[in-house]
Amino acid sequence: MTINLNIGSNLGDRHANLARAVAMLIDAFAPRRWLASDIYESEPWGYDSANAFLNQGLRLDIGSDMQPAEILALTRKVEQSICADPHRHADGSYRDRVIDIDIITIDHIVMHSPELTLPHPQMLNRPFVLIPYNQINKAE
Q1: Which of 4, 39, 48, 49 lies deepest, with the highest CB count within 10 Å?
Q2: Where do the H-state alpha helices sit in 2-126?
Q3: β-bridge pairing 117-118 and 111-112
Q4: How far apart are CA 35 and CA 107, in angstroms?
Q5: What Rg do the C-alpha atoms of the chain give, in angstroms?
Q6: What is the pTM of this model?
């Protein structure tokens, strides 16, 4: 099973935040193989902020078939352990964040639920997702 994630940070030590998230995700999923993209800087998407994001793609090839809900729970656990602050304001608008982990794809699963849509519904609109995704999926 192959999981593609996009990790972003626009607060604090952004490089250290990404490195910590990658290490924790590798520990949590224990992949047979993994690939991390280069780090890309991007402007915030969907809201205004003076704090640019660093984004990195992560591909995890795991040996077991996990359910998407299990994968989502593990990624949220990693996010919460790095920073428990919410990703959105009370009105639902985006806010700056120490860490953000988005599930982009899980194998070729197509699904839509209140908690998770696969593939990620905005991936084609976000160069900061597509560039790292293409880098780690063409590396084979």
Answers
A1: 4
A2: 14-29, 68-82
A3: antiparallel
A4: 15
A5: 14
A6: 0.94
Written as six digits, the tokens of 79 are 């996010």
Element (DSSP H or E) covering residue 56:
strand 53-61
User: Comparing C-alpha atoms, which of 140, 125, 133, 118 is closest to residue 59?
Assistant: 133
21 touches 101 (CB < 8 A) = yes
Specify which residues 105 forms β-bridges with.
4
Q: Decide if 52 contacts 43 (C-beta within 8 A).
A: yes
DSSP 104-139: EEETT--EE-SS-EES-TTGGG-HHHHHHHHHHHS-
Q: Strands across the sheet with 33-42, in order? A: 33-42, 53-61, 2-9, 100-106
Give pLDDT tens digits for 27-43. Answer: 999 999 999 999 999 99
For 54-69, b/e burial (b = at least 16 CB within 10 A) is bbbbbbbebeeeeebe
Separation of alpha carbons 81 and 130, rounded Å: 26
Pairwise pLDDT comparison (87 vs 70), residue with the higher score: 70
Amino acid at site 127: P
